[in-house]
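Reopening this one. Same input as before:
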Amino acid sequence: MKKVTMKDIAREAGVSITTVSKILNNVDMHISEATREKVMGLVKEYNYIPNQIAKGLRRNNSDTIGVVTYDISDPYVSEIVRGIESVCKANRLGVIICNTSPEKEKELEDLQFLGSKMVDGIIFLRSLSPKNEEWVSNIKTPIIVVDRELSMHIPDMGMVDSSSVDAIYQATQLLIREGCRKISYIGPSPELRSSNRIEGYRNALKDNGITLDEQFVYQKGAFNPETGMQGAASLFTGAGIDGVVCANDLIASGVLLTLNRKEIRVPKDVKVIGIDNIPISQYLIPPLTTVDLHGYQVGNECAEMLISRIRDDIPLSQKLIDCEIVMRESV
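Same output, byte for byte:
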């Protein structure tokens, strides 16, 4: 069957191609309702889909944004992406997601792929190697970064901060208020995204006059349950730890599992708190006290800021999303 074109729709409706285009793009309110209904009826009848690529070339845009992330399987990242997609869908924008690897060569391939698709803007949910930051600065595309600043200055860049460092600070403060004094921190390797969350832990101890004991700090691995399991196994060897701040809920889930196997009671013997408030945290044993970073809202804010820049030329800015403690049974 021959593919239906805009020209075919116009001929059968008895109007010009320009009129069909205006109706599809909803840009001319002076076209009669009868004509609109006739054209849209034919569009539906023939299942006509406008050529967005050609449309984008004519307008020098693609109605598409790119999202660069480090691990789409991370529930918190998934929440951010859901928030981005929700706003983009409401604004008739497409989203291309690139789940990049740590290797800078693969990372550059993904960036070049987005460039080839003429995306109108890019949202970064991960850090970039300095070499690839330079490439990004040269593509003249609006950029939003989440929870981090790039090492080099890029003029057309905004940031949405989910308060992850403050979340760790609040988590540590909560344990201190609950009577904990020997508080450990379990997080990923310092080279990974958001490894700076530990600064919230350090600052909270300092503000409360508690000396930081480096033997209570475990920073290896990634943002996953295995890091929590290995960290708890390494730290709980008779040091008298009474509280654990975890860099995210996935790590906390591993900590809870290891403590259970060691027959260490939570929260009676040790209090445990996580960060992110991912859905599974409420179903852990015991249900995990955590700090909600409002990932879905972070995604909404990223998309709204970027769309305002693309469509209305509103300068990019910095936006802070407040975090919130969610009390359950592990503290």
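So the earlier flakiness isn't reproducible anymore. For the record, The chain has a mean pLDDT of 88.
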